[in-house]
């Protein structure tokens, strides 16, 4: 019954004089930066410039350049149909595809089927809690210092500020001593290092998880980012990928949970160096990996991009504007689907169980949810992404509050045989004298009616 | 291609939860607490952390005044295995284990003041293990010797969970008399159920310990525990082996199971899909390139400000209000039709029996 259709509205126009001036820049990146202030800031829309085939803006071999904001440069060439196909391809990359919309809906599929490879990126939520943990299993050998506050201010905050539209984020950090991984790494003679194979990685997380803790007050999903400094006796430690080669980032992540990175400390130059070694963690290198993992956990991956596309790096903001749009499209659709299934199932519940009392505030939350979701659907249909997303967030808040209201608990269930078993032994003996007396009354009135006629 | 096939048969869950419920109180129901703690122990050993386990114990056996070995709950005679251990975290204890609280945990309709450890914060990618034990009958399970939960209520609670997508797959295990009646009414998808006995059969306890004076475990859970002791986080044992645990010769009752609501073939379902917590991991191959030299914005986290207003101790108990409180007026409802009819009938019968002339005084 529920389905989502999507379409793109394409508008074609010539460039303005200011845009021409901007496009006269030397490189694509400068052009992109110059074009950014000229565009009306509107979420959910993209601007694509088709430059002549001979233009030197795009490097050789690149056909499409996708900028940091919401614009792209395409090189003309070939037929008009080919250009149109490429425009469509870029649009799908920068906003949404039918597949990505279907994936956002997959959890709410009305027929109830969940395929195993359904979307495993984070569910849309009103907030997320991010915890950075430093695991030091061997404090006797390594005295590890990490400037996490500085790193969060310099590297993490810009990304979270950009994502603040999507949800509220709270960040905390901790250091855990004597926290070991659940797996003993294997020693590899050839590289004289220790290796963790891919199939042992799933078992690494569990023993640590019990100690990670999470805020008792917040109900938001938690994302854990762990930095593990291996013991002196197990250094250096590398993670192996499926082909046996060490992974360049030395890190792995688990969907909907977080990521772990292994930070190796070089052996001391001379064996006489006194332990513990003082270590200052290179937070920039660590944050590069953690922020990449954060992007992957949110489902923003740049892996399936064709070769002749050049995507501009997002820099310290962590994600491009169009990637933010991409996220918002998926989350809005998911929110709307969630609200519709919540409200439907609430209605079904209240239909089935007639004697649940609905409090006034539950009713007003339901009305508010319905109004918000209708407005979200309308705005989504017009492409106003920002307001559609806000409306969908309000709708989700209201519908969850209505559905999970503690007063909607129904405990009374009376099967038919219980009714017989309880009420008959109670009322049957009581009813016998009453019924007999009633019969007697009826008989007497009938007799009296007959008597007058007899006497007359 | 083989990898795709493997992926298809694997469960799509990303986290595991367990809800373990013991519904009996009193010292002679020691074995139910021992059952639940044994499953708790196995589940923790295989990797599910306390934050993902909701443990409900209706009575305290370890510190019960009748326990000759305080602070222990044994699951095997000769006191071989103390399942109480050092780090048991009981979330709902003693009188908090009620049908209402159990249903609140399952459906999520919990008052906002409930702490995180008492909530089931599962999502659509959670595999949940629900284990219940106690005294039961045909279609019901007794809670605390004072109330019951029926199989219809349980099935409805699971349907509420499914509607809100609070689970990916659910494994329901029950160890009571006539346990199979509790899963007869399930109708939500992705549920697999096991019970220790069929309708009409009793589940029997395993063995008494003469030192402690009570029966220590129930047979079904005893053999399940033995089976689980051989599972480790990486084992590939599947559900079909769990179905074979405790045949009639050992258990006296006939364990039953129900898999028609489950999508995958039990052959492909690993024990660790429910009892353990094996996560899907992916190697991180991308990095974000950061500009290292960027000075970064000033810390916008709010500095501790000096308190500008004097702090007062908030009145916890408004004593003045309580002392001078007028008794609350309960809303008065007129008697309903049934009661009125009953009174009218009784009055009529009375006057008929004792003579109609008394009725003249009424009118």
From TrEMBL, chain A:
InterPro entries from the UniProt entry: PtdIno-glycan_biosynth_class_S
Recorded superkingdom: Eukaryota
Pfam family for this entry, one: PIG-S
Subcellular compartments: Endoplasmic reticulum membrane
Keyword Zinc-finger part of the UniProt annotation: no
UniProt pathway annotation: Glycolipid biosynthesis; glycosylphosphatidylinositol-anchor biosynthesis
Listed transmembrane segments: 420-442
Membrane-related topology note: Multi-pass membrane protein
GO biological process: attachment of GPI anchor to protein; GPI anchor biosynthetic process
Gene Ontology CC terms: GPI-anchor transamidase complex
Keywords: Endoplasmic reticulum, Glycoprotein, GPI-anchor biosynthesis, Membrane, Transmembrane, Transmembrane helix
The keyword S-adenosyl-L-methionine is assigned to this record: no
Family the entry assigns: Belongs to the PIGS family.
Name used for this protein in its record: PIGS transamidase
Source organism of this protein record: Scytalopus superciliaris
Lineage: Eukaryota, Metazoa, Chordata, Craniata, Vertebrata
TrEMBL record, chain B:
Pfam family, one: Peptidase_C13
Gene3D superfamilies per record: 3.40.50.1460
Annotated keywords: GPI-anchor biosynthesis, Membrane, Signal, Transmembrane, Transmembrane helix
A biological process from GO: proteolysis
Active site (record annotation): 135, 177 (nucleophile)
TM ranges: 332-351
MF-aspect GO terms: GPI-anchor transamidase activity
Pathway: Glycolipid biosynthesis; glycosylphosphatidylinositol-anchor biosynthesis
Any one of the GO CC terms: GPI-anchor transamidase complex
Protein family per UniProt: Belongs to the peptidase C13 family.
SUBUNIT field: Heteropentamer. Part of the GPI-anchor transamidase complex, consisting of PIGK, PIGT, PIGS, PIGU and GAA1. Interacts with GPAA1. Interacts with PIGT; this interaction, via a disulfide link, stabilizes the expression of GAA1 and PIGK and links them to PIGS.
Name listed for the protein in its UniProt record: GPI-anchor transamidase
Upper classification of the organism: Eukaryota, Metazoa, Chordata, Craniata, Vertebrata
């Amino acid at each position: 019954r529920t389905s989502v259709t999507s379409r793109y509205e394409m508008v074609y126009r010539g460039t303005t004089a200011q845009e021409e001036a901007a496009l006269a820049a030397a490189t694509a990146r400068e052009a992109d930066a110059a074009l950014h202030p000229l565009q009306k800031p509107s979420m959910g829309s993209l601007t694509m410039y088709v430059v002549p085939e001979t233009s030197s803006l795009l490097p050789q071999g690149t056909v499409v350049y996708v900028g940091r904001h919401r614009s792209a440069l395409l090189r003309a060439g070939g037929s008009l149909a080919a250009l149109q196909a490429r425009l469509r391809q870029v649009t799908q990359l920068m906003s949404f595809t039918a597949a990505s919309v279907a994936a956002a809906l997959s959890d709410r599929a009305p027929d109830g089927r969940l395929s195993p490879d359904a979307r495993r990126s984070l569910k849309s939520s009103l907030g997320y809690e991010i915890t950075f943990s430093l695991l030091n299993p061997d404090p006797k050998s390594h005295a590890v210092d990490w400037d996490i506050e500085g790193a969060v201010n310099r590297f993490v905050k810009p990304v979270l500020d950009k994502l603040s539209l999507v949800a509220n984020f709270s960040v905390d950090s901790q250091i855990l001593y004597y926290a070991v991984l659940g797996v003993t790494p294997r020693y590899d003679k050839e590289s004289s290092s220790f290796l963790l194979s891919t199939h042992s990685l799933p078992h690494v997380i569990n023993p640590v998880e019990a100690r990670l803790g999470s805020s008792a007050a917040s109900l938001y999903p938690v994302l854990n980012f762990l930095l593990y400094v291996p013991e002196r006796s197990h250094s250096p430690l590398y993670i192996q990928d499926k082909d046996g080669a060490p992974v360049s980032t030395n890190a792995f992540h688990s969907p909907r949970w977080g990521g772990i990175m292994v930070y190796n400390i070089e052996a001391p130059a001379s064996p006489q160096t006194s332990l513990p070694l003082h270590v200052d963690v290179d937070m920039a290198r660590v944050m590069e990996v953690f922020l990449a993992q954060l992007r992957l956990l949110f489902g923003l991956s740049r892996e399936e991009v064709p070769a002749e596309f050049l995507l501009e790096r997002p820099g310290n903001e962590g994600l491009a504007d169009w990637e933010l749009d991409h996220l918002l499209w998926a989350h809005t659709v998911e929110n709307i689907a969630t609200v519709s299934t919540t409200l439907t199932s609430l209605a079904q519940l209240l239909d089935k169980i007639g004697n649940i009392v609905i409090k006034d505030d539950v009713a007003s939350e339901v009305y508010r949810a319905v109004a918000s979701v209708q407005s979200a659907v309308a705005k989504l249909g017009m492409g106003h992404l920002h307001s559609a997303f806000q409306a969908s967030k309000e709708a989700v808040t209201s519908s969850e509050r209505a559905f999970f209201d503690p007063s909607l608990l129904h405990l009374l269930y009376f099967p038919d045989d219980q009714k017989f078993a309880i009420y008959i032994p109670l009322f049957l003996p009581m009813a016998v004298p009453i019924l007999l007396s009633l019969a007697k009354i009826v008989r007497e009135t009938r007799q009296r009616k007959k008597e007058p006629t007899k006497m007359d | 291609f083989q990898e795709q096939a493997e992926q298809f048969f694997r469960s799509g869950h990303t986290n595991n939860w367990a809800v373990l419920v013991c519904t009996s109180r009193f010292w002679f129901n020691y074995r139910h607490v021992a059952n639940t703690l044994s499953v708790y122990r196995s589940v923790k050993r295989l990797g599910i952390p306390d934050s993902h386990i909701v443990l409900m114990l209706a009575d305290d056996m370890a510190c019960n005044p009748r326990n000759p070995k305080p602070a222990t709950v044994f699951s095997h005679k000769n006191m071989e295995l103390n399942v109480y251990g050092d780090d048991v975290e009981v979330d709902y204890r003693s009188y908090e284990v009620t049908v209402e609280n159990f249903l609140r945990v399952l459906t999520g309709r919990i008052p906002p003041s409930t702490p995180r450890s008492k909530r089931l914060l599962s999502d659509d990618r959670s595999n949940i293990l629900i284990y219940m034990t106690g005294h039961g009958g045909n279609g019901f399970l007794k809670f605390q010797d004072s109330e019951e939960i029926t199989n219809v209520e349980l099935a409805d609670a699971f349907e509420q969970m499914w509607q809100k997508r609070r689970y990916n797959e659910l494994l329901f295990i029950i160890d009571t008399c006539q346990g199979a009646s509790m899963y007869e009414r399930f109708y939500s998808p992705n549920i697999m159920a096991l019970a220790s006995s069929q309708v009409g059969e009793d589940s029997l306890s395993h063995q008494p310990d003469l030192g402690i004076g009570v029966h220590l475990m129930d047979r079904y859970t005893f053999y399940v525990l033995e089976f689980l002791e051989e599972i480790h986080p990486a084992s590939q044992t599947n559900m079909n082996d769990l179905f074979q645990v405790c045949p009639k010769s050992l258990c006296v009752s006939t364990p039953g199971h129900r898999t028609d609501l489950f999508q995958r073939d039990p052959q492909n379902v690993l024990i660790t899909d429910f009892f353990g917590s094996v996560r899907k991991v992916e190697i991180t191959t991308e990095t974000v390139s950061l500009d290292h030299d960027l000075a970064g914005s000033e810390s916008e986290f709010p500095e501790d400000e000096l308190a500008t207003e004097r702090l007062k101790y908030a009145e916890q108990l408004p004593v003045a209000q309580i002392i001078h409180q007028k008794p609350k007026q309960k809303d008065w409802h007129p008697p309903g039709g049934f009661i009125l009819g009953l009174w009218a009938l009784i009055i009529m019968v009375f006057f008929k029996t004792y003579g109609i002339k008394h009725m003249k005084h009424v009118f």
